[in-house]
Structure formats: C-alpha cells, structure tokens
Design a protein that fits this description.
CATH superfamily of the largest domain: FAD/NAD(P)-binding domain
Strand content: 15-25%
CATH architecture of the largest domain: 3-Layer(bba) Sandwich
Mean pLDDT: 92
CATH topology of the largest domain: FAD/NAD(P)-binding domain
Low-confidence stretches: 446-452
Number of helices: 13
Helix content: 25-40%
CATH class of the largest domain: Alpha Beta
Radius of gyration: 23 Å
Structural class: alpha/beta
Shape: globular
Length: about 450
C-alpha cells in the first residue's frame, strides 16, 4: 500500500471505525492510555447507531419519509435531537462511573427522569424500590406489600462481604433467586416486576441462577433511586448523541484524529491479521482495529432482531402524573411474550424537541414475523401519535474475540432501555485489547460523583 497517499498521519496504534457510543468510549480510553488513535465513520454525523438526529428533516431523510415535517405542527427542525436508540442512564450505573473516570462529565449536563413505571393488569404503576413506596403501591395487596417491604429491606442491607447480612441458611452463591422470593412468600406477579422492572432482566432465566447475580442489580436500582428520589435514571440534555461526542472530545484532547464521511476498507496481512485501513485512495497502517458490527459483515453473526418505533407526541403519557420523561417496562408475562417491551419518553424539557412535544420510543426484541404488531401494547399506551418512525434491525455479535487478527468488534445495541449491557460490552472489549480489566476510578482532577449531578 506504499503507493497510496497516507490517511491521516499514515500510521496509528488503533483505528476505530464507527462513532457509536461504544466505539467513542473505547477510543477515548485508549487515547488517554497513550495510544495513537484514528477514528473514522462513513456517516456525516457523530454517534452511528447511538446518534441523536438533528434537524428533524434529517430524521425524515434517514427513514425515507416521502414528506417533510410541517413546521407549523412540529416547530423548528433545529430544535429537535432525536435518539435513534432509546436508553436511559442509571444514576449509579457503569456509564456514570465511566463518565466520572474519564472526566467527560465536564462536557455534559443531565436531567433526572421523572418516573419509572411497570405495566400490570392493563394499568401503569410506579415501580416501588423502597419499603415506604411498597406500602403505597397499587401493584400489591396489603399483606404482599408487607412481605415485599421486608424483602427490599433485606436487599438494601445485604453485603456480600458481611455474612451476617445474608440471613440464616442462605448462601448467595448457591441459593437461587426463585428460592429467595419463595423465602419471603412473594407471589408470581411480585417476582415478575421485581425481576423485570427493578433488576431489569429481559427474560426469566435469572430465577434459576444464583441470587448473587440478581441482588447487585436490585441494589443498583435502589441506590440509583436514592440519589435523586424520583427515579433511578438520568438523561443528557440535547440527547444521547452528546455522549459519544463527549468521549470524542476526550480522545481529541489526547491526540486522537477524527474523520467523518470516510468509508473504510480493511487490509489484512497474509496470516489474516490486520494491516491497516484504506479509504478513498488513502491508506493508514495500524496495530489493531475496533469497530461496530455493521462494518464487519464477515466477522459477525446474527443473534436476533430488535424493533424500535420513534413516536412524536403532543402530550405526556396518560397515568404518569403528567411526567415529561418516563421509563415504562411491560413485563413479558403481562402480554404473553418471551421478553419485555420498553417505552422511553423524553421531551422538550431535555432540549430534544420543540416546545410542548414529546418523543416516545417503543422497543422490543422481535419474536414473530409481524414485529410492529408485537409492540402494540407499548404503542397503545401513547395515545395520539403525531408521527412515527419504525425500524427493525439485526442484533449482531462477533464470531471470535478478535485477539488472533486484532480486529475487535462490538455487539449491537440490544432492546434494553438502559446502558448497563452496553457498558459490559465496552469493558469486555477493553480487556480483550489490553489484557487488563478496566478499572473505573475517580480521577483526582474530577469533581467526584457530583460531576454527573442531574439538573432539576
């Protein structure tokens, strides 16, 4: 490739393709670690699948709508920042720890999500995560509330390092979560919302696994809730696209090079290892490549499909106390499915829509040949819909760990409505690249956890 002009400086430690959140976080982390990074994207905007699209006209273009938005009805196009993938941030979760670890919080401002709800018996109920909330919840009868309150108290006091907090005859590594629920005499529907709306599992196989896997997930929910009080979730002003851009700035500060509108073509050595990347007649060598799975059709396998419906509304969701932002989980058993349906709502108060407008995104893992019919329970909660943009995408994952050829591929973003699985994938890729786990510590120059404080 010596006959081609250099791409960027011509030689890099790492070339990252795709500017999705996962790729931008990895780019930032490796730049901070002293690696020379080139980051490129075939699109003309940051964020890839995790972008926030602006102006609104661009969203119509992406979804190939034959018409253009009516400004009299939708407001100014530049007032919109519409997420392609809906996810909220756990206030005490892994993404916040990554933001604090890298000090990317300085580029962002957050707003708390007003409430977290679960669908049961054709009604929405606020998810209780404290014994006090349990006593006032419409999810349970009086005696079940008392049992659930005791269960939550035990969860919140549990410490894996202190055997005295475990309870008599309980071994968290051997006792299943189902056995824990049974110990507290909780009924099936209480197990259902506990596992799906608090522990945030998408399916029920966790019930037969050791309780030590589920307890931290429930504690994360209650700890995140305790931080602000209304819900365990926060959301960045101007949309999720601010997150990859924040990490892109971090990478740039440490010498990272960014190029948009650069479709990559990968060049390999005779032994199959990566040699470099060429684009539009230019070439750059590298030691390794990181990228989202859509860039590597020959290195990924399909593990399922996910449907997402972006819906523009002119009103809040009914029965959510007129909240301007909410998370709603429809557990699988409530609608005879194998996995949950998620509804995430944000609005003009987050600087992502014009005045008085709301963005509700309904998402689910596809289980049939009629995906849009599958999410009807979520769509039916929304009321009148001004405009709808529906996508069905493949869930892709790498067929190998990348260590042999030094091509490290991330997984697609799943249907879950939070970033915990996203962060686990980032940490897995980081460890495969460096051979060391990612240590999420608070840097001395960061403003500690308050740097991720949510605006009221």
């Amino acid at each position: 490739m010596a006959d081609l002009p250099p791409l960027g400086d011509g030689e890099f430690d790492v070339i990252v393709v795709g500017t999705g959140l996962k790729e931008c976080i990895l780019s930032g982390l490796l730049s901070v670690a002293g690696k020379k990074v080139l980051h490129m994207d075939r699109n003309d905007y940051y964020g890839g699948e995790s972008a926030s699209i602006t102006p609104l006209e661009k969203l119509y273009e992406i979804f190939k709508k034959p018409n253009q938005p009516d400004e009299a009805k939708m407001g100014r196009g530049r007032d919109w920042n519409v997420d392609l993938i809906p996810k909220l941030i756990m206030a005490n979760g892994l993404l916040v720890k990554m933001l604090i670890h890298t000090d990317v919080t300085r580029y962002l401002e957050f707003k708390q999500v007003d409430g977290s709800y679960v669908f049961k018996g054709n009604k929405l109920h606020k998810v209780p995560a404290t014994d006090g909330e349990a006593l006032s919840s419409g999810l349970m009868g009086l005696f079940e509330k008392r049992r659930f309150g005791k269960f939550l108290t035990w969860i919140n006091e549990f410490d894996i390092e202190k055997k005295a907090t475990w309870g008599e005859g309980f071994d968290p590594a051997k006792t299943t979560m189902l056995q824990v629920f049974q110990k507290y005499s909780l009924d099936k529907e209480t197990m259902d919302f506990s596992g799906h709306a608090i522990a945030l599992y998408t399916q029920d196989d966790y019930l037969n696994r050791p309780a030590v896997e589920t307890i931290p997930r429930m504690k994360l929910y209650s700890d995140s809730l305790a931080r602000y009080g209304k819900s365990p979730y926060i959301y960045p002003l101007y949309g999720l696209g601010e997150l990859p851009q924040g990490f892109a700035r971090l990478s740039a500060i440490y010498g990272g090079t960014y190029m948009l509108n650069k479709p990559p073509e990968f060049v390999y050595n005779a032994d199959g290892s990566i040699q470099g990347v060429k684009s539009e007649g230019e070439f750059a060598k590298c030691k390794l490549v990181i990228g989202d799975p859509t860039y590597f059709p020959d290195r990924v396998k399909k593990s399922g499909r996910v449907i997402r419906a972006i819906c523009i509304l002119s009103h809040p969701i009914a029965n959510t106390d007129n909240s301007t932002s909410v998370q709603i989980i429809i557990p699988q058993h409530q609608v005879n499915r194998k996995s949950d349906i998620y509804v995430s709502v944000v609005s003009y108060t987050h600087n992502v829509a014009s005045k008085g407008k709301y963005i509700a995104i309904v998402s689910a893992t596809v289980e049939t040949n009629d995906p849009e019919k599958e999410i009807l329970p979520g769509l039916n909660l929304l009321g009148a819909i001004d405009e709808k943009f529906v996508s069905v995408t493949d869930l892709l994952e790498p067929i190998d760990d990348g260590t042999k050829n030094q091509v490290f591929v991330t997984k697609s973003y799943d249907a879950t409505s939070h970033f915990e699985t996203t962060c686990l994938d980032i940490m897995d890729v980081f460890q495969r690249i460096t051979g060391k786990p990612l240590e999420l510590t608070t840097p001395k120059n960061a403003e500690n956890a308050e740097g991720a404080e949510a605006a009221e």
